[in-house]
UniProtKB/TrEMBL annotation:
This is Abi family protein. InterPro entries: Abi_system_AbiD/AbiF-like (IPR011664). Pfam families: Abi_2 (PF07751). It comes from the Bacteria. It comes from Sporosarcina jeotgali.
Length: 324
């Protein structure tokens, strides 16, 4: 049987094997609060485990941990608001076009495959995505009923079709992104117009909304599950080039790459502005974010700070404030 290390042993391990100055009751308390495995091991590198940060003292580890937690505090309510707003704007367009019954929407709007030649690779790919979406939604409805979700049980008990708004209550943001992806081009373009995406250069086929959904999905899930976000390691795929170019064009913030967390702030601010947030509210979000980043830069090595936030962080903040 392998004997585990208690907190004192872990502190000794950090001193002897990682050359980190950690000692005293304050450091012990901080290590216990953040955890060795979830905390220290998750915050000792940038993006990949091989890219370790050369810490000198445990206070630097604590600074990254606290910075990461503050970022989640800033992002969480805004991401939740954006998820709700995006779903409601999509619903608004669909309801204007007819019934909100899922079967009706599936037949008449989730039919982007029709623009392809029957039997072609693109046709089969789009049809597969459409059928997978239907199966996933039915499975989610079934699991929601089994777990006594009131919004789903209500319609089952009344023997009524489950409307789209109720389905949106129980599906994930990723599934919602797939839903938008499967909509026909006419509907996608109407949704983009509803959301206020004015530029058509990067959105000629209406795909920009789904690309925004998929970009914030990874951050939203990481924040909701208390995963590390400061270095964007949560990113599961590379956001679309069209989205990067569109945000740079619309906001004036250059080099939006989504390699640094500030670029996700650019997307959040852009969407919130489109959804009617006031200048005062938007400036507060940006300044709160900037203040935490500046404080962070005072307590960790400069090289690590630049690697995490990018060398153009301050320029991006200045341009984002100008955009607001």
């Amino acid at each position: 049987m392998v004997k585990g290390k208690n907190t004192n042993s872990l502190m000794r391990h950090l001193r002897d094997n990682h050359n980190i100055d950690i000692q005293g009751s304050k450091d012990k308390k901080n290590l216990m609060n953040m955890g060795y495995y979830h905390g220290y091991k998750g915050y000792r590198y940038i993006k990949i485990p091989q890219n370790t940060i050369e810490f000198q003292s445990f206070s630097e580890v604590v600074a990254i941990y606290e910075f990461d937690m503050m970022l989640k505090t800033i992002f969480y309510p805004n991401l939740m608001m954006l998820e709700t707003a995006l779903k409601n704007h999509v619903l608004e367009v669909i309801i204007k076009k007819g019934s909100a019954d899922f079967e009706h929407v599936f037949t008449n709007l989730l039919n982007d495959y029709k623009k392809e030649n029957a039997g072609s690779k693109k046709y089969k790919k789009k049809m597969k995505s459409r059928l997978n979406l239907r199966d996933h939604i039915y499975d989610t409805i079934s699991r929601s009923f089994a777990s006594d979700k009131p919004v789903i049980q209500h319609f089952f008990h009344k023997n009524e079709p489950i409307p789209l708004w109720a389905i949106f209550e129980v599906i994930t943001l990723g599934s919602f992104g797939s839903f938008v992806h499967c909509l026909n081009e006419e509907t996608r373009l109407e949704i983009a117009n509803e959301i206020g995406l004015k530029s058509t250069n990067h959105n000629h086929n209406g795909r920009l909304v789904e690309k925004m959904v998929f970009a914030i999905k990874d951050l939203r899930n990481a924040v909701a599950h208390n995963s590390v976000i400061f270095d964007c390691r949560f990113k599961q795929g590379e956001p679309a080039a069209e989205l990067k170019a569109f945000l740079s064009s619309e906001t004036g913030v250059r080099d939006v790459t989504f390699d640094n967390i500030v670029d996700y702030l650019v997307l959040v601010i852009y969407l919130k502005k489109n959804f009617g947030a006031t200048k005062t509210e938007l400036k507060k979000i940006i300044k709160d974010f900037s203040r935490e980043c500046e404080h962070f830069g005072e307590v960790i090595p400069r090289e690590a700070y630049s690697a995490i936030l990018g060398t153009d962080f301050r320029t991006k903040i200045t341009r984002l404030l100008r955009y607001v």
